[in-house]
Write a structure and sequence with these properties.
single chain; about 375 residues; nine-stranded parallel sheet; two-stranded antiparallel ribbon; 11 helices
């Protein structure tokens, strides 16, 4: 298990002990490792930060995407809630799958994938411009620390979940260049088997294909983190080995533990996969989905964190908020944690369980994800 020898302390962050109350403590920053870019429900709350009134930020609905599906950016929907929760870092996931009623499928080829990413990135850029610098896209360690030091500013780390059905005419070199150009810091599979490999729940798990292995090796060699959250067990094992062999990083950003009533849940990582991620120095985030937790109460969230913490010495320093806001279906949210503001109550529940100290809860709340980013983000922009 990787031990962090020195905990980094960015300026502008005020640490405080959790109070054992239902409202938690607003002074503790929040860092979220995974939120999808589409809002299935509206968590918007207008608040004032200094001289900036954010009450209008969530009212600009986005234009339909190229496939005609009307979407609203999660950043627009949740701006007020993020600020009220004292959110400092968002792992904002580009989810480029074609979305129609009862029809979610991967783009046909790499060019189609990049067109979808560009649409989302363009909307994101427009919102950032309108937000008065609430959101700042970070691609280097310096970017991260500058955003952390400014009150009311949220660092946005761009990730990508889902690969196309095939690479098409694009070379691996071009594909990697495309990712770097768009500032993608992390990449993973989604719930559809493609020419790159198998995802969770597949009847016959063949793992990554040669095409998938070659692409992910190139990603790791260029500093892009691999995410096993939706991968099949065999694909996950291969991704962990690729990261280890190439000196890279692998995470499970939003997952669940195979315990109790969800011990057979394919979307949840196995203990062996979780140990592999933790032993590599990667982070594990718990998704707040009742279907993945085996129940819809905070005690189910605590049980998942407790299980992951038991998998190795020092694992508490690698657990993060996986959240998966708006990637989960309506009706599966956890009682007491239905909005981002309620993540404070998740922290309080972790501490009140007696299984985590106040310091460890603070680590889970923000510091572990911050430390992970400081290990994985380049000191200089790798696209330059």
């Amino acid at each position: 298990m990787m031990q962090v020898q020195e905990r980094l302390r960015p300026s502008g962050i005020v640490e405080a002990s959790l109070r054992p109350t239902t409202s938690g403590n607003k002074n503790i920053p929040i860092a979220i490792a995974h939120v999808d870019d589409t809002a299935l429900h509206n968590d918007f709350r207008g608040v004032r930060i200094g001289s900036r009134d954010t009450s209008e930020l969530g009212r600009h609905l986005l234009k339909p995407t190229v496939d005609g599906a009307s979407r609203q950016s999660i950043l627009q929907a949740n701006t007020g809630g993020y600020l009220e929760a004292n959110t400092k870092i968002l792992g904002r996931n580009y989810f480029p799958y074609i979305m129609r009623p009862d029809d979610h499928h991967a783009p046909e080829d790499w060019d189609g994938l990049m067109r979808q990413v560009d649409i989302h990135r363009g909307y994101e850029t427009g919102l950032m411009r309108r937000s008065g610098d609430v959101y700042r896209r970070v691609e280097t360690q310096g970017d991260l620390d500058r955003a952390m030091a400014i009150e009311g500013t949220i660092a946005v780390v761009n990730t990508l979940e889902g690969l196309p059905r095939t690479l098409g005419d694009t070379s691996n070199i071009k594909a990697i260049e495309d990712l770097k150009k768009r500032g993608i810091q992390q990449i993973g599979l989604w719930n559809e088997n493609t020419d790159f490999g198998d995802t969770h729940g597949t009847p016959e798990d063949h793992g990554l294909t040669r095409m998938g292995t070659a692409l992910l090796e190139g990603c790791v060699e260029n500093g892009i983190v691999l995410d096993v959250s939706h991968a099949s067990p065999r694909s996950s094992e291969q991704m962990i080995k690729i990261a280890a062999k190439r000196g890279g990083h692998v995470v499970a950003s939003h997952t669940g533990a195979r315990i109790n009533d969800v011990i057979e849940k394919s979307r949840n990582v196995t203990d062996n996969i979780a140990r592999g991620v933790l032993e590599s120095g990667g982070i594990v985030g718990v998704a707040l989905s009742s279907g993945m937790l085996g129940g819809n109460r905070l005690e189910h969230v605590v049980a998942a964190y407790d299980h992951f913490a038991s998998l190795g010495s020092g694992a508490q320093e690698q657990l993060v908020y996986g959240y998966d806001a708006n990637g989960i279906s309506l009706g599966t949210e956890i009682i007491g944690a239905t909005t981002v503001v309620d993540l404070r109550d998740v922290g309080t529940a972790l501490q009140e369980s007696g299984r985590f100290t106040s310091s460890e809860v603070t680590d889970i709340s923000w510091r572990n994800y911050y430390d992970h980013l400081h290990r994985t983000l380049p000191s200089e922009n790798r696209a330059e």
